[in-house]
Amino acid sequence: MAEKFDAIVVGAGPSGNTAAYLMAKAGMKVLQLERGEYPGSKNVQGAIMYADALEAVIPNCRRQAPFERAVLEQRMWLMDERSHVGSHFRGTVDADEQPTRYTVIRANMDKWLSGKAQDAGVLLICETTVVDLLKKGERVVGVRTDRARGDVFADVVVLADGVNSLVATKAGLRPRVKAQDVALAVKEMHFLPRHTIEERFNISGNDGVVVEMLGKITKGMVGTGFLYTNRESISLGIGCMVEDFKASGVSPYQLLEELKSHPSVRPLIAGSEVKEYSAHLIPEGGYNAIPTVHGDGWLICGDSGGFVNSVHREGSNLAMTTGRMAAETIIGLRDKGRDYTAANLKSYRRALEQSFVMKDLKKYRDVPEILHGNRQFLTTYPELLTRAAHTMLKVDGVDKLTKEKEIKRDFVARRSRFGLFGDAIKLMRALR
Amino acid sequence: MTVKVEEKLFENRYRVDEGRAHIAIRAPEICRDRCETPSCTWCCPAACYTKAEDGSVILSTDGCLECGTCRLLCSEHDNVEWSYPRGGYGVLYKFG
After folding, report:
1. ipTM > 0.95, yes or no
2. Do the chains contact at A105 and B84, CB–CB below 8 Å?
């Protein structure tokens, strides 16, 4: 395989497929390497796909992408052991508004976008694991695969190899991902008849519901649960920071089983057939954990670069956008006849800084640390809030003013007046 | 609540690379003698790591979901040799 390409893309997820597609479309000779049997077979996501990021690559994506359901309703649940308080947003503001978020089944999505890339001329080789980068001095000049005579050369290498970022780490281009910067999520695919899902969630057609869950379900660990409706299945999962799992002694599948038996969740999945159990790491270190994302002859995009907005649970749009910007940077340099040196590829970083990708990550840069040091947001407050709702709604002959005082006492007893004030400031600072 | 992970893994598709485990414990005696918090035995979502009676840790990669958690957990002793399976082998997600 001692052939030379204009570009090599490692990985066939959203960022790799986007980068490969755009470069091939611009006339470049692109090789894409994927270790799975087909694109998607190694990939795991919740999963929500964002039409805006996809439309920037495939303009009429809404008519052809394998979306499951458009997110009509978003629920946020703060959960205690047996109850939850929550908020819903349902509907649209304008009558002709297009949805921006869709639930997807990741394997279908990756296959579809990879098909576009292949149609554009990308040479995709599956069942091939990239084990290292080939360097000439400091310059990356190709990749080493696990195939016989598996060295391949290119002018530039796009690393879209996922959260573990093994290739760049092994080649010394970035430090190893740290346990405090990643969450481990486990998920099950629960299959139910289409009409059952639509009845249970009060939806019809292609509309869907997503539920994000916070609170005691993660046993004090920093993490969230999620439930997404697909056409004929429900994606149900839960994830927490790896260092929290390490310290807690709790198993991820234990959390998932307990979530499934929570009185707010159990009826929604009753009678379902589970067809898959998956696990995946999510880079949640935010802005401060982003490594160097470009150098002589290489760029990193997607999860491999830590591009996830954990506060908003966004990832696939950051993956696609970073993949697009990597490709645009490369195409721009090619058009000007300039080399893919670290100095020239710096415009990738600049483009990221000017986009929502880095702006959003910067906005929430303090959140990981604040949550880390303030577990009350995930334990005490969900409990206080569910209890407050319970107290106010229980009709037992006690007058409402007494109930209100009881709730206030409850809050002060658990967090003190200073504590409550401090928590409000922390929360505002984290989310400002 | 006891959870049977094997039942969960049973739903998944795998193509096992017989005799070529992609993860290895570098020095078993480190797990047995020096690791006080074998977090791999409870954090691994596929329960690939189990603790034996003599305190050593036994690794079976057949059900591995390739998440990479164990590689990051073992930072103190750096005793996990971790790579992805050979191309085409390992877990094959139908839905992901």
Report:
1. yes
2. no
